[in-house]
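Blinded run. Sample ID left blank on purpose so nobody reads anything into the name before looking at the predicted structure. Input follows.
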Amino acid sequence: MKAGECLGCIQADGIVPEWADSGRCRIHACVREHGAKFCGLCDAFPCDRIPELISWNPNIIEHLTKLRDQYNEISEKTDLKEI
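Blinded prediction complete.
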C-alpha cells in the first residue's frame, strides 16, 4: 500500500495515518451520518457529495462502485455482512 492510501472505511474506521492532523476522512464522516459501512453501501449512493469530498480522484464513483460490487460478491459467498 502506498503512503496516504486509505485502507477503507470498514478496516480503517476513516483513519489514514498520514492525515492524522486533519482528523477522520470527510467521506467517512458522511458514511457515518448515513449509517452505512462505506459509501458504496449507502442508500444515497452515488450522490453529488462524493466528487466534492474526494475531488482529487475524478473516477471516484467508478472506483467505489467496483468496491461495492466486490463487497457484495464476497458477502454472498461468506457471512461478511455481519462485519
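Unblinding after everyone has recorded impressions. The helical segments are 9-12, 26-33, 49-53, 60-77.
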